[in-house]
Here is the input.
Amino acid sequence: MKKIALLLMLLISTYVCAQNSNTTFGIKSGINLSKYSPEIFVGGQRLADYQFNLGFYVGGFSNIEISEKVKIQPELLLYTQGTKTVVDDVNIIDERRNISNSRFEMNITEYVISLPVTLQYFISEKINLEGGLQLGFIVDRKDKIIEDPFSNINQEEITPTDFDKFDFGINIGVGYNLSESLRLNSRYFIGILERDDIIKSRVLSFGLEYKL
Here is the structure.
């Protein structure tokens, strides 16, 4: 709750700044690579390997000029995040007591409505560094079993009903102005809220912003 209150305070201060600053609006879209952390170890042996999943994001933003070098950018985004979970060396014992190694693989995809607020600092006319907070609400989640050594049915899709809906963390990134209206942007989201008592999100995004 303290993290959510902090973000709300930041949004209020952003709104106040917008009343006395030059504000522009735009749309943005791109792709991301996401995974969970930390990896799970039992007895010194890795139980599950979290690998990157490919996703996307789309949304809008407002850009508030505080000074020539400093801007604040609140955004409203819809994006996907998740992970590929791989468990190697799964021991299978058949009816004759023969042991064989197999593999379990599952893709987890979360659909998120996100509210990032970033502070941008322009080190030159075209290049900026940025950082800020991001609050996300997970509206849906799909678990797709790709490879299951205990079942003959592959590509099975499951919709979990019990999972933590809120995500919270920090963003760091860099941007490059291609023109007055078009900008390249890359960010790395680091989840600091532990979800389901074990996982945190990691999302690396690449995309374009267009000022309207």
